[in-house]
């Protein structure tokens, strides 16, 4: 259900609620007819998920937006299945945890938006998220090799700021290459501070615990960064669009600061990954041939050759996993019917 109304002049309210009745089931089976030794996993929950947005159009081209909502994060099937599988990129063995539960998320945000021209804008905002039982990846003992499973941490909070801008430029020139194009500059930056909270009495249920709750502090350090959350994320796009030639080209620079890739074994530091800087180039062109419209795209990825690096910080930095990601390129042709 959803209701939208102008409560007072220039202030719009949009309120809604969604009801979800969800059931998620994983049943291990032995393809050769034997017994797996695992019971089926079932997550069956009902949720009322409210959401509200207040928008204040205080100027012709500006507005303030405030939002609040509740959402759900569900485990993936492979995170629930109590069987081993190999991630081909990291060459690491994963095994699911049949005792995972849903993550309940409270989202709060406020944003200022300035639309100074068509398709051009500047925005700035703040956000806050409270996650109850977020799902994290954790290293487990499997001899000398590294294997990972999943668990529900007790609670986590993420808060931060985000800015974004998009601007087109047009230049007069004797050169048709320059004069016929709109030149694009677009970027965004997000700073986020995340923290996992572990209090006395908090527990987790791990993959090999047979359903018995264990002290959460044995697996998750109070105050540590949420797994997978980087403090700094930035994106810059430079390019052009040519409506006459029906083409566009974009150079894309992405930066992601270090993040926790997995919780370490009990008593060991967490595994840290440094995604670094990635440079991509994308070119697209539409054209007509034999009475039919086509689209061509050329994509070049990781032009700087950024490497994958994962490590633990003890007395010294210990490299856990590192390899060359390599650059890649693709060409595609699409016919429109």
Describe the structure.
- The protein has one domain: Maltoporin, Chain A (Beta Barrel).
- The protein is 2% helix and 64% strand.
- It is built from two helices and 23 strands.
- The two termini are 37 Å apart.
Order of strands, widest sheet: 1-2-3-4-7-8-11-12-15-16-19-20-23
What is the annotated CATH architecture? Beta Barrel
**Which range does the strand content fall in?**
over 45%
What general outline do the C-alpha atoms trace?
globular
Going by helix content, strand content and strand pairing, the class is mainly beta
* Portion of residues within helices: under 10%
Summarize the structure.
The protein is an all-beta fold and 337 residues long.
Summary tags:
four-stranded mixed beta sheet; mainly beta; Maltoporin, Chain A; 337 residues
Layout of helices and strands, plus pairs?
Elements (H helix, E strand, L loop, with lengths): L1 E7 L2 E16 L14 E19 L2 E12 L3 H4 L3 E4 L4 E4 L7 E15 L2 E13 L2 E8 L2 E8 L2 E15 L6 H4 L2 E16 L5 E2 L9 E2 L16 E11 L4 E10 L2 E4 L8 E3 L2 E14 L2 E10 L5 E7 L3 E8 L3 E9 L1
Parallel strand pairs: 6-10
Antiparallel strand pairs: 1-2, 2-3, 3-4, 4-7, 5-6, 7-8, 8-11, 9-10, 11-12, 12-15, 13-14, 15-16, 16-19, 17-18, 18-21, 19-20, 20-23, 21-22
